[in-house]
Amino acid sequence: MKQRTRVAVAAVAAAAAVVVAVGTGGATASAATTKGGTLTIARSADIISMDNTTTFDNNSIHVQQQIMEPLFNVSANGKKLTPWLAKSYSISSDKLDYTIHLRKGVEFSNGDPVTAKDVKFSLDADTATGSSGWGYINAAIDNVTAVDDATIDIHLKHAWAPLIADLSLFSNAIVPDNYGGETKEQFYTHPVGTGPYKWSSWKKGQSLTLVKNTHYWQKGKPHLNKIVFTVVPDANTRKLQLQGGQIDVDDTPDWSSLSSLASASGVAAKTFKSTQIDYIAFNQKRKPFDDVHVRRAIAYAIDRKAMVKAILFGHGSVANSLLSPGTPYYDKNAHGPTYNVKKAKAELKQSSQPSGFTTTLLIRSGDPNETSIAQIMQSELKKIGITMKIKQLDPTANKQARLAGDFDMAWSAWTMDIPDPDEWTSFAVDPNGGSNSAFTNYDNAAVVKLNSQAQQSVVSSKRKALYAQLQQQTGDDAFLAYLYYSPYVYGISDKVSGFHVTPLGNFQLENVKKQS
Fold it and tell me: Which residues contact residue 264 at a Cβ distance below 8 angstroms, ignoring those fewer than 6 apart?
């Protein structure tokens, strides 16, 4: 039998995070708040799917996280991992076997008990999606065994540093064995999980409703009876609805509205620390974006400081790396292209399009921030001989176009979901990582190798060195044009308490209360 190390509140070499006791997170509700009520959250776009194993869309993911829960969860500061549906775990001395003990008394929202068979099925189902979904995150898993009803064993193909962090990803959330007897397609039309809320109804393009899970394992939670996510594409309309009391949370206010929200009665604009990076993606399947000199020319032509000032009103910083400052192993010394018109012109002269060309940037309609980005870029690229058209699609259509690779250049953003860089680096640079390298079709074998080595190293100093190399090489390749790092901003009614967003973008709505 292999020697095992018991994991409690200590750092684990195989995960870039620490495991701590379960905490509630969020602000403490005032005495005026009561149990029950409905929380209405307005968002710019609808969900795409409830299949947590194949969906790359935050609006879908944030709903999924209220319904389905993983074995581990992130702490309020986004840096640590908390046993969630798991109670504890141990690791073999060769780092190849993880034995995980499940929390007792956990039930699905239909009242059925959660067993190791459900856990095995869920992890296997995620792994099976492979490069078409989030299965890449489980690439090191050889097999999962249900030891007994309350214990599973995960055997790895090789040492894998981010395993515990990977098990906290929404795609590894636990669902009933064999989808409760339904097909996968049937199940995800009304998913069942252990989360604080359960599926109720969906009016496509309008609203989605969740109701309280009366079988939730955290006693006394959730506090609310119902969550309603509405679709309101226009930022100004969301602001007016928040000020008028029609909604409780605006999840994407534009930065220009912060001062008016701050001075308005009954509402507040609140920022939260984030791991978000905004960037421009180049579709390398479309010429001339297969040419690194073209990509560098555009990356050098962008005045990021002007964007931070004009768009974020100073609430952010210029992005220098694929990783954000809140992500483990971020390298502040990584040097991606920064604003330099002379270098931009020189790169274009070396390219396949020395006299310039015409291209299109895809953005979401109704979003003042993206409109400003596009207008600034349009002006700046004109200076180096590139004519840039702006294509606006409503947020849902925009996401579908990006997922389908139907763009030349596109604005996008990433936030981490786990406290380990592997989720994003594998998604962004590995063409087999589930997204064709963040939908850019970028493929550099040397970078893929660096990423693989960082995954398999359990020595933090080695991972740091490998990720430093990766950050520099991806910057040199300019497969993305990094724009800026910004905090999350939400407009929130002062009737709401306990609403907290982690740096990974998660919000635990079981902790939220609302004044009647």
Answer: 243
Q: What is the dihedral of CA 460, 463, 465, 469, to 10 degrees?
A: -160
**Pair type for strands 267-282 and 480-493:** antiparallel
- For the chain, how big is the Rg over CA atoms in Å? 23
Q: d(Cα 234, Cα 252) in Å, to the nearest integer?
A: 10
Q: Determine the Cα–Cα distance for residues 451 and 83; give it in Å rounded to an integer.
A: 27
- Give the tens place of pLDDT for each residue, 445-478: 999 999 999 999 989 999 999 999 999 999 999 9
State the Cα angle at 389 between 384 and 393, rounded to 5°. 145
CB atoms near residue 201 (< 10 Å): 11
Residue type, 426: S
Q: Residue 483 and residue 409: Cα distance in Å, rounded? A: 14
Residue 7 has pLDDT above 60, yes or no: no
- Is 372:235 a contact under the CB 8 Å cutoff? no
pLDDT at 406: 96
Q: How far is CA 374 from the centre of its chain?
A: 23
CA diameter of the chain: 68
Answer for the pair 134, 171: CB distance below 8 angstroms, yes or no.
Answer: yes
Residue found by looking up tokens 């905004």 in the block: 278
**Which among 87, 116, 99, 83 has a CA at the least distance from the CA of 4?**
99
User: Other CB atoms closer than 10 Å to residue 310's CB: what's the count?
Assistant: 17
Tell me how far apart the alpha carbons of residues 87 and 151 are, in angstroms, rounded to a whole number. Answer: 10
- Provide the 3-class DSSP secondary structure of residue 18: strand
Please, are residues 390 and 361 in contact by the beta-carbon 8 Å criterion? yes
Which residues, 6+ apart, have CB-to-CB distance to 118 below 8 Å?
108, 174, 175, 176, 177
Sign of the torsion formed by the C-alpha atoms of 405, 410, 413 and 416: positive
Prior bond of 288 cis (ω within 30°): yes
Rounded to two decimals, the pTM is: 0.83
CA angle 337, 338, 342 (to 5 degrees): 95
Q: How many Å apart are CA 55 and CA 264, to the nearest integer?
A: 37
- Token pair of 56 as six digits: 């790359």
How much of the chain exceeds pLDDT 90, in percent? 84
pLDDT tens digit sequence for 281-291: 999 999 999 99
